[in-house]
Amino acid sequence: MNKEALIPYVGIVTDIRQDTSDVKTFRVVSPEGGKLFEHRPGQCAMLSVPGVSEAMISITSSPTNKEFMEFSVKKCGCLTQWLHAMEVGQMITVRGPYGRPFPVDDELAGKDLLFVAGGIGLAPLRSVINYVRDKRDQYGTVDIVYGSRSKDDLVDYREIVEEWEKAKDFHVHLTIDREQEGWDGHVGFVPNYVKELNPDLKKTVLMCGPPIMIKFTLAGLMELGFKREQVYTTMELRMKCGIGKCGRCNIGNKYVCKDGPVFRFDELDELPNEY
Q: I need a surface site. Which of 3, 64, 66, 73 has the fewest CB within 10 A?
């Protein structure tokens, strides 16, 4: 591990976007301007408020963005409540990057990609999606299946509509769990929608969302003929210290913070059923 990942950087919050009722995206820069440190798609950082708490959060901005870093945070605990009360101009400390990223420059290069996300699960994939969009000639077609409880719970909705849907060879499929006034898109759960779309078996799948969504989406993909080595997921929610010392993220002999958080499902098959 890079020793610099253990040293906290001071970051200044320059923008706060209210994505949903309980999700905000924070734009952070260094005091000198620009991003705090380099990272790869799928990696995480430790956000800390001295005297309050700290937590491992996915870096949602793409490595191709050199001007700032972004973190989408769901309000669900002491630190996240404090973050949601922050104002532009305040400072936080950030350590990182941590974890094994998505293999964007080797195993995914040249492939047709299928992203499947539910709720806040879009946040870890957003970094990869925008990386692929910025390096369009290095990848094949891109399909994004994203769902939430309602239209109001779709994270990064403006970016999806104004940028992703207009990107070359990008196909975005949105769904919500139940009918809603003003929504003319698909209605239904993500696992069923994926099966309805019947994606090409040549695609490589990147998936993140609630465990129940992942369970049934994976089962649906297997029914369609996909193989487990074609499907990646990220398990950053299990990460704690980020350096493999606290032992709270281990699954068998693997540490999510060091050996993950990105895993293929055939790799997870080799581990105890603890995840």
A: 3
| Residue 237 reports pLDDT greater than 90 | no
**CA 186/CA 196 separation, integer angstroms:** 11
Whether residue 117 contacts residue 52, with contact meaning beta carbons closer than 8 Å, is answered with no
Model confidence at 7, in pLDDT bands (50, 70, 90)? Answer: confident
Is the per-residue pLDDT at 3 higher than 70? no
Evaluate whether residue 249 is within a structural domain. Answer: no
- What is the CATH classification number for the domain harbouring 194? 3.40.50.80
Based on the fold, state whether residues 10 and 44 are members of the same structural domain.
yes
Taking Cα atoms as reference points, which of 212, 209, 87 lies closest to residue 154?
A: 209
Q: Can you give the pTM of this predicted structure?
A: 0.93
Count of structural domains, the chain: 2
Please answer whether residues 13 and 25 qualify as being in contact, where contact means their C-beta atoms are separated by less than 8 angstroms. Answer: no
**pLDDT score of 236:** 75
How many Cβ atoms are within 10 Å of 31's Cβ, its own excluded? Answer: 11
Amino acid of residue 214: I
Regarding whether 217 and 123 lie in a shared domain, the answer is yes
The answer on pLDDT for 103 being more than 60 is: yes
Can you list the pairs that 155-162 forms with residues at least 24 positions away whose Cβ atoms lie under 8 Å?
155/19, 155/20, 155/23, 155/25, 155/72, 155/119, 155/120, 155/122, 155/123, 156/19, 156/25, 156/72, 156/122, 156/126, 157/19
Q: Is the pLDDT of residue 188 over 80?
A: yes
Q: Determine, yes or no, domain membership for 49.
A: yes
Torsion angle, alpha carbons of 129, 68, 71, 42, to 10: 40
Q: Domain range holding 183?
A: 113-234
Residue 10: CATH number of its domain: 2.40.30.10
- How far is residue 159's CA from residue 193's CA, in Å, rounded to a whole number? 22
